[in-house]
Amino acid sequence: MPIGLAAALVMLPNDGSALPWIITLLMIPYMLFFAKATRRWVADFTVTALAASYFLTDVFANINEIPLRETFGFDGMQVIIPLALFSISEFARQKDKISAWTHLAMLGSIVLSRTILQAEDWFMPWIFIGYMLYLAQNSFSILTTESSWEKKMQATMVALIANVSMVLLAVLDRFELPEFLQDLPLPEYFNYQIFILGAVSYWMLYRARKIELDLGLLFNWTKRFAAQAPVYDPKTNSWSAQKSVGVQEDGDWVKKNSWSQLTRLSLLIPFFMMSFSLITMVNPWGADFDTEGTKIFASEPWIYASPYPSDCFGS
To answer: Residue 278: is its pLDDT beyond 80?
Structure first.
């Protein structure tokens, strides 16, 4: 079965795995898009097994101290394979050939691999974050202000994952630029990569500002589920479900629990990143504050979120 073939890729020796991976990447699209006998569960488990094989192959290679460039046979496959898996999984998701959880499993296997976390090619983290922002934007594009709260919650969570991933990769200093851009006369100590990411993230999710749930709605939405949990009745020795009231049925619920649009994650995280990028520092994650801008940020971080010059604060 194709499930077993996909899972068996992890058993291949690294130096001889290039050809089997190429054959698999040609076989999977045929199974998903052309073979009429392919059942949904077979497609889901095959793609999931393929994702697991990719991730475990990278993990075992890392344990054995095999460089990423040699993990899949020869140099270049460490880029071709994840990009192909990305493309196949995304196209299958759009065509409804696989389930959403299958696509997330494939996405997670690539994100947690050295291809992204320890990328040897500067463009891989950029491609991943670009795709995550596209996925978040696409999740909101099919919704309106009248859409169900469950769909709004799902789209908001996708935006949350995209922004958290962006921050994580920024903290790990994974966003690098090609060599020809590193020689440009850019402002010294200006983290322009982080500024670009924050600006692009804000721009892509700006249209969803009236659909995305803010922090207050997210927090109180989860509290509603806890309040509606089944209650044990000792008299009847049974569990009884609480009356479920939809959020849209409560006219004042949003006004009472919303913390305003200013607490949207797609606004807070991009603006913090853009403000953070303006700090004049050599190493933002180092222990030594060796520049004036770093000292100011450590003592008065609110200055960078203010439209007023630092002189107004007595600095």
So the answer is: no
